[in-house]
Specification:
single chain; about 90 residues; alpha+beta; Ribosomal Protein S8, Chain: A, domain 1; four-stranded mixed sheet; globular
């Protein structure tokens, strides 16, 4: 299976990924965002039954690079997305 190349920007759409990939994806993506001086990321987890959203929120709650997170406003996805504010600190090189 070919790896998915994800551009580093202020939006991450999780629809392209399997749930098992999400924890490592979020960690790597957040590190790359900080390297690119991006400190606010809209994570799109979708609405559906809310299973992916619950998993994402649990990961964000304990993630060391996450300063805070909140539901996205209606114009940015509403309850189908979460706005994440990242810590402004150095990330060790990959």
């Amino acid at each position: 299976m070919e790896p998915i190349i994800v551009p580093i920007e202020d939006v991450l759409d999780l629809h392209l990924f399997r749930p098992a990939e999400v924890p490592d994806l979020l960690d790597t993506y957040f590190q790359e965002c900080i390297r690119a001086n991006i400190y606010t990321v809209r994570v799109i987890h979708g609405k559906g039954k809310g299973v992916l959203k619950k998993g994402v929120l649990a990961l964000l709650e304990k993630h060391p690079l996450v300063q805070s997170f909140a539901p996205a406003p209606p114009e940015a996805g509403g309850w189908g997305a979460t706005l994440v504010t990242l810590q402004r600190r150095a990330v060790s090189p990959a």
